[in-house]
Request: fold
Amino acid sequence: MVATRWHRGRRAVTVAGVFAIGAMAAMGLRGNAGQTETTTPPIQPPAQALDMQSAFEQVAAKLRPSVVFIRSRQANNAPAGLRRGSDNGDNGDNNPFGFNFPGFPGFPPNGRQMPNMPGFQHRAYASGSGVIVRSDGYILTNDHVVNGADKVTVRLQDGREYTGQVKPDFRGDLALIKIDATGLPAAEMADSDGIKIGQWAIAFGSPFGLNDTMTVGVVSALHRETTIGDGTDQRFYPSLVQTDASINPGNSGGPLVDIYGRVVGINVAIESPSGGNVGIGFAIPSNTAKYVMNQLITKGTVTRGFLGLAPKTLSYDEQQQYGVKTGALVMSVYDDTPVAKAGFQVADVIVRYDNKPVTDDAQLRDMVAQTQPGTTVPVVVKRGNAETTLNVTVGTAPAAQVAQNNAAPARADARTKLGVSVADANDPQVRQQLGLKGNVTQGAVVVEVVPGSPASDAGLQPGDIIQRLDGKAVTGSTQLSEIARGLKAEGTVSAVVRRGNQTILVDIPLD
Reply:
């Protein structure tokens, strides 16, 4: 991906610009003053066009009251020179959109960091969108819109403002805000499993702080998988809805709806070289949002199911090899996990889960995540020439993101170029799950090796810690990704690898 960005908006229109726009509008009105008012339109559009316009008008009338503007405030004790976006030394109070939050399009720090500059408390602000999901004051948005905030303000379409209480879900990048209000116009949530490519998609929100904005497009693709962010701010999105409806910074947390006015997704990200819309936006499917929302309402936290394997969507060649057209190929099985205890094996192809067909790894991840831990589920796998049913008792997913069934391989570049999925070697949960011992914590630990890949040909194994690649030090998964991105598509690259109690040099063929 070129650049994937979260959407907390930053409105760049100044007061002077607003007045200029007003003056232009006034001039336009004076210019039309001498025209004769007519009651008959100059043209009569086809009935189909009028019907389509009427449909969009109905969607707007239904959804606009359910969409809210969200402003979050974060207290900080960083030195003044490290503040982001604070104009004229005003602590950002006069520039309220999208400051100091991870993933927002980069604005350079204001001022210069001076030696020994004392820290003091200041405030940073971010803005985004949300959608009312229950009439008694529950609002759904993205976690990255409100993450770390000490105050969240919700403004309804009618202008009323409330201070909200936040229940976050970092892993799913969703958050539930509760405000003290009743009788609110709640939007209807659709069944996102029924979404089809090509159907109308309508986005609502506050791009660049422009409240009450509606844009129209289509569903461009389904089951998009991506990782956004770095380090502790990294999030894995296993299955996103892609749309060309215009989504910009500030649309985050707003609804993506169908032509019936039902919410099919929560706007979350765009792919863009500039930070603005280029026709590629993403939304979290409504079924995922409903699952998270219901758990946050009832329990305050989200519990996800866990198997302990790494699945992969079958390529065309693998479909021929394993004799199936759909399913999820088991790439690795982790010891002492539910699937290990149930007898799953690497190279099994999961074709049915809990009596439902499995089309790809994204669908399997969703089904597993939404299974209540402790539930025993029948899973049908294709093994060799026969199908076998394995009964697995679903476990509880770790709270942190690690490279297993509901978390991302740390970096797509490393997977694409080398054929490995990696995580930070100092991640305690990863170390525990891979059984890593010793005091080596710098580097990128291999959690999955793709069969037939360069890494596989070089003999790399899960648990290996890559400390140097192409002569460059590797401090973690992010660093490995950056180095792998710059590798040529041919030749051999050397890696220094820590394996058990020895350090070895490995030559990885790239062609």
User: Anything to note?
Assistant: The domain at 412-509 is CATH 2.30.42.10 (Pdz3 Domain). The two ends are 23 Å apart (CA to CA).
